[in-house]
Amino acid sequence: MIELKSVEKKFGDITVLKGIDLSVEKGEVISVIGASGSGKSTMLYCINALEKIQSGQIIVDGIDVHADQTNLNELRRHIGMVFQQWNSFPHLSVLDNVALAPKLVLGKSKDEAYSIAEKQLKHVGLGDKLDVYPTRMSGGQQQRLAIARALAMEPDYMLFDEVTSALDPELVGEVLDTLRLLRDDGMTMIVVTHEISFARDVSDRVAFFHQGVIEEIGQAQQLINDPQKERTQQFLSNVR
Amino acid sequence: MDYTFHWRPVIKALPDLMEAALTTLEAAALSMIIGIVLGLVLALLRLHGNRPLYLFATVWVEIARNTPALLQLFFFGFGLGAFGWHLSPFMIVLCGLSFNNAGYLAENFRGGFLAIPDTQIKAARSLGMSASQSYLHIIIPQVFRLIYHPLTNQLVWAVLMSSLGMLVGFRELSGETQFLASNTFRLFEFFLAAAVIYYLLVKIVLGTSYLLCRKLFRY
Ligand SMILES: Nc1ncnc2c1ncn2[C@@H]1O[C@H](COP(=O)(O)OP(=O)(O)O)[C@@H](O)[C@H]1O
Ligand SMILES: [Mg+2]
Known about the structure:
The complex is a heterodimer of chains A (240) and B (219).
Chain A: E1 2-11, E2 14-24, E3 29-34, H1 40-47, E4 55-60, E5 63-64, H2 72-76, E6 79-82, H3 94-104, H4 110-123, H5 139-151, E7 157-161, H6 169-185, E8 188-192, H7 196-202, E9 205-210, E10 213-219, H8 220-225, H9 230-239
Chain B: H1 8-12, H2 14-48, H3 51-66, H4 69-82, H5 89-115, H6 118-126, H7 131-146, H8 148-161, H9 173-184, H10 187-216
Helix pairs in contact in B: 2-3, 2-5, 2-8, 2-9, 2-10, 3-5, 4-5, 5-7, 5-8, 6-7, 8-10, 9-10
The complex binds adenosine-5'-diphosphate (ADP) and magnesium ion (MG).
Magnesium ion (MG) binds next to helix 1 of chain A.
């Protein structure tokens, strides 16, 4: 379970997260929507401690993420993350992209790491690309590679930061399909997205961010089809 | 023009010249390896070091890039010698070239590091890699790709720069040529031969570098 309690995050003098409370149960899929600049990405970065927080607490499976004694490398093994820019490692083949972290971080042997990598790559439909270099692939393929790379660590949670926003429209579908696949596998996910219909159909709950606070949160269908707050209504009518 | 060429002394001395050419390559290659390691460290100090370390690295880079290589060599020869610290001619050349290489390469490395998007580090860290694992396996290999050609240029430069060694008594290709030429009085022939050998050495370096590039970087 991931719990955020009154989380505050500042960049210099600017407060970007103004007291976020959120808890995500095991197996739950939460979509996060909201205008750009509202702090969605920053919240994800705080959950796996790529960014520090100034006050509040983030607890992942009982571990206080931002406590001094927390071993972040150990913690991050359990929290996969996929970024808007897919961030393939360009100097490594597709197979090595996925196998590297299991080797380095989990201490798997080369053979084990490769077989884990191959399994995950097949899972996201890249089984025929093992020896290709990522720069030769489409954005959609690279994004699926990034998903396989995160899954190879066998994480308990996955964070997705606008993973389809940088893709050509015709490539969005294949990546969203991969996310659906994960949901069906029972993965716990926080998905920051602008794909409103995806948020409505695939997630359990949706949170609407506005200027660093969660303005509204609720059951996916309900929040999207019948938002209660005026700002949510405004946002949704603008993006539709 | 009544200069008559006499090539026989040169031909007789070819084995010596070849051996000296190897010494040249050896000094250049060693100084390059040391220069790469030190250059990497200097670049990281300039990017991430605290104030004193940053200043130390910056002074090094500034001196290496903005003073004559010959004076840098003299520093390790006569300079240290004045303090009673006498290095062998080989060590003087090795230290001088390494100092110079490190200074130039540090700037190349620094540019390389800055050119890698910081999202690469974020991606690596998000997978649980430590900071040093991220640098070693993700960032540095990409930096080497980016600065591969400047690296090759620096190696060529080191081969040619090593000829300054003759001024501190190092018997590399130029020093050996000087020695043989003055023994036989065939100055022009010997220095012409040396020029051709330098030219070939550089071509060998460039050719090897090209082949290595194709083998190392498949993307
Ligand atoms: N590294 C940073 N340094 C300074 N300000 C930042 C940084 N990252 C994000 N911000 C600011 O924080 C706010 C929230 O950004 P972000 O979390 O990226 O929003 P969103 O993902 O919802 O678009 C923005 O105003 C942005 O300019
Ligand atoms: Mg964002």
